[in-house]
Design a protein that fits this description.
The structure is a homodimer of 312-residue chains. Chain A is an alpha/beta fold. Helix content of chain A is 39%, strand content 18%. In chain A, the strands form three sheets. The first copy, chain A, has a five-stranded mixed beta sheet.
Chain lengths: 312, 312
Amino acid sequence: MSKRLVGIDLGGTNIRAALAESATSHGPRSERRSPAGESPESVVAACVATALDACGGEKPDGVAVGIPGPLNPRTGVVFAAPNLGEWDHVDARRLFADALGCPVAIQNDAKLAGYAEWVSGAGAGTENMIFITVSTGIGAALIFDGRLYGGAVGASGEIGHLKVGGDAVCALGHRGCLEAVASGTAIGKNARDAVARGEKSSMSSLDAELIDGQAVNDAAQAGDSLARRIIGDAGGVVGTAIGSLINLLNPEVVVVGGGVMDAGELFFDPLRQAVAATAVEVSARACRVVAAGLGTDAGLAGACAWAWKNFS
Amino acid sequence: MSKRLVGIDLGGTNIRAALAESATSHGPRSERRSPAGESPESVVAACVATALDACGGEKPDGVAVGIPGPLNPRTGVVFAAPNLGEWDHVDARRLFADALGCPVAIQNDAKLAGYAEWVSGAGAGTENMIFITVSTGIGAALIFDGRLYGGAVGASGEIGHLKVGGDAVCALGHRGCLEAVASGTAIGKNARDAVARGEKSSMSSLDAELIDGQAVNDAAQAGDSLARRIIGDAGGVVGTAIGSLINLLNPEVVVVGGGVMDAGELFFDPLRQAVAATAVEVSARACRVVAAGLGTDAGLAGACAWAWKNFS
């Protein structure tokens, strides 16, 4: 009889779980609200309940959990997960294994989304891939020589603090880093600042606190030129960073995902132009830059694929 | 009987060869001037003569050649090698194999220097290492999960064009890239510009064309404050880039080599400070930043180690 292997995508807003059905497919999702901010034990209990839903009440034989923060998959320790609350050096794998009574693998959620894009999405069939997700923050996953790359303690992929110049400061206080300039958060802030300076925009009629990345995209899609410029500038900065990574890592494909990609060509066209202006010829010719293929399902699909890889 | 395996370090100035004696050691070097600028066939003939010297006139059983330019080790094609002359998409492995009558592996010279530092130098014993060489240009070699990483077509390691901000322009016309700001070439240019602007310095007595990276280091070692500031600024920019790479790649060690390291702590102390200001805590704690251990022998040692790895 085949094993019951479950992937869990643990987010700050929702918990999703599904049964892995092959290396590249999974069953229907179970979902509930994430009790983020409560104790790690409460969050784990909600994950266990969601996993049991996905298994029809049966005990799973192996579970992989995607967690939003840096963690060491070898030791099972989560260094931090600010979107979940106080997860400061928590032995998360042990918490999950004790509560589930089966082997558990934990992995960073952006890495799993990238892994899913590599196994069955826009990067399928390659050996060397970079996945970049541009949302509230900016993260990356790296596939080198046909394997998900972790690094010394599994903390690789922190591309958000890549220096790209400029004076903006990110949440950690780093000046001129990618996340401070080009994340969804930065797009919202740049729009609020521009409106406050009196720049002409349809967003001027909104209360300042309503001007976030989504509102800027809505305005841009409706033709607002300030919103279009801000999104285009962000695309250019991300594209310059991607060009630098193409030079360093010579990947076959760069897959770009995350909420900011909802802006479509307003973001992606200047991104591609900046890649072309930055990447050296040999590596540029060897590399495609494409939109992610799995959308918001990538994290759950990656957790299921990771469960299959580790426990099938 | 053991095989005669030879490593060749083909540079724009000199050709060096030696017999590999183990995975980590080699015999005495043979050396001659490089006929750079002549045809690839002439350069290859000089390499063959140097290799035969290293073998005492006997035919080698396998040879690895380090070449100063981007190349694809799988196809054997050198994309470009400006320091050697017109090597535009030259099938170098075939040229060498035909002239030597034995199996040949080619590899980029900076990658081989990094490989040597990993096998027997400052990065020995690690699984994940970044090697950065700061000389006329700036290059890198990457060890991921215990293997030298090449990328899609072997062109990885081009860190010289990483955007770090500022207005300086590199030889390829990229604005604000690492090489334009912090290479030995940039250090010389920054000093010439400062002297031309009338800044006070012992270098003011030199003809402008004599103010190169070496002259700036000489002045700095003698206490010249302009020279010290220029070298320190370069160290800070390289350190910021290294901090970004530590965040992205979470290595166990970053090994820094190349001629600019002759400046010692004047370069390395601001480099370390910039790393500390840039790297996130989890990855910074997992990573040492150290000076290269093999000096100018690294390229030859790497070629010998590569011959041993490929043909022993």
